Amino acid sequence: MISEGRRLLVTAKYHGVYFFTRKKEPAGKKKLVDADPSLLCKFVVDGTGKRIGESVSVDKDVLIIKAGTLFLGVPLKHVEAGEKTLVVKGLIDFSKAYEMGEKWRKESYREMNNHERPERNR
Question: Which backbone phi and psi does 73 adopt, to 5 degrees?
């Protein structure tokens, strides 16, 4: 005797129909929103139009800005996309922005310091 659920599965397989179930997300776990690629490689300005730097990455919900030799992190909820630039709304807490940018740099950014050519095998 075949159970009802197994009969449905066998019948579905025979007809070429497959059923898949998605794993449920654990409660409290946030879904990451895919970053919009149009946010990258744009100049970032503050509300007065003063240039802050250039956007280089998006880490979860934080925009990473390269400002000279520093990296700054600004939450995406404070960033508005313009036609050619990104505008940071409100005042920027530079100490907090520097902390977020430095955290990203330590985790993700790797400088290439070794510029010597490898020795050739003779």
Answer: -120, 130
